[in-house]
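Limitations

Structures in this collection are predictions, not experimental determinations, and the ligand pose is part of the prediction. Treat each record accordingly. The example that follows, with FE3-S4 cluster as the small molecule, is included so readers can see exactly what is and is not provided: the inputs are given verbatim, and the output is the predicted complex.
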Amino acid sequence: MTRKLFVKTYGCQMNVYDSARMADVLAPLGYGPAERAEDADMVILNTCHIREKASEKVFSELGRLKRLKTARDDGMIIAVAGCVAQAEGEEILRRAPFVDIVLGPQTYHRLPEMVAQASRAGGSVLDTDFPAEPKFDHLPDARADGPAAFLSVQEGCDKFCTFCVVPYTRGAEYSRPRAAILDEARRLVDQGVVEITLLGQNVNGWHGDQGGLAHLIRGLAGIDGLERIRYTTSHPMDMDEALIAVHAEVDKLMPFLHLPVQSGSDRILAAMNRRHDRDDYLRLAERLKAVRPDLALSSDFIVGFPGETDADFADTLALVREVGFVQTYSFKYSARPGTPAAAMPDQVPEPVKEARLAALQALLQAQTETFNRACVGRTMPVLLDRPGRHAGQMLGRSPYMQPVHVDAAAHLAGKVVRLTVTAVHPNSLAAVPAAEGSPR
Ligand code: SAH
Ligand code: SF4
Ligand code: F3S
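Predicted complex:
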């Protein structure tokens, strides 16, 4: 019997990876993919707790699912997974008793038992343990979905930035063993994957028996058929010499690094418990660009952290001007229950946050546009991973994650091709195949 599964994913790339793995775990039970919740026998919401808005979405989506479930007489299993489930499991069951399963990010290898239990008992199942045996030891092989894949290598966080829920929702830092990671990478490459993005909440905090992330990246670079490597998200404090050096040595490592700084003010960085100051970050950016001159940086920012003054915010703008980022995510500070910053005095009023966010985003947007325009005329390797909007068109990703479209034959799908950028569109670059012998 085939049943249909619909997974809706919120939040970060680790949740995207987890959603795919939940589908892998349920496949042996006969669950195949559904296009929409309306067609599904089981719906999983894989949730994010990072900001208030993210968590609220879950309850409104649950309202919609309740109506779907009631309208059907053949039953529907509703599961809530991820970080909201971890943080507010009991609350979900109280507010939405029609939910059958609530599971945290560390227990989804047990989904088959939970599904059996939910179908049998009729009641709800709650599993938000942090099991001693990591889930990775119990998952089936990952199935590739296209030429670019995510691979979780590290989970959890011990940094305790004062604004952040992740240390509570994902638990303590854990590094998967190197052999298991290389094994998963090889299997992905055997299925046609050419680009792997290593994932972790603190991916550059990954460590094995014989070294850190630099050692792992060198190992991955030795896999034939794997052409591009990325890693995200990194904490500035864990960017050690070896990892900086790998950017110079390993060609397969893309010259693009997501290295969130959050703020440019020393006072705010200290209050955030980021464990570095603005000068540390500026020097780090310099060292990276010194070993790999074509490297571009991206970052996350928070505006309106408690106590942030106009002068602090001006420091953030100044740092942005100094570093130059090509892609960014910026957010208004959102007070999260249980985090130290939520209890700090001098919470910043909403209109001030809004004005700062608008000013910061205008500057960041201008930097992104300047970078995109500077790419016109450049030839770069692009991984063509999807069909484009028009017939005969393909979409791909540049080394800097810019979407690039090109008129290309479908047989190039899944390949890295050299393209010359010809124009900048609002959300993508246009390119043509590079002439023979053109420089990088
Ligand atoms: N581990 C990563 C970030 C994970 S959360 C790091 O250390 O950078 C992703 C982003 O969400 C953060 O970089 C931060 O910019 C933002 N964020 C986290 N908590 C937030 C909060 N309470 N309010 C607003 N933005 C927040
Ligand atoms: Fe959150 Fe800080 Fe950990 Fe990143 S490093 S996940 S921002 S606590
Ligand atoms: Fe959100 Fe959890 Fe990721 S809170 S950002 S889904 S680690």
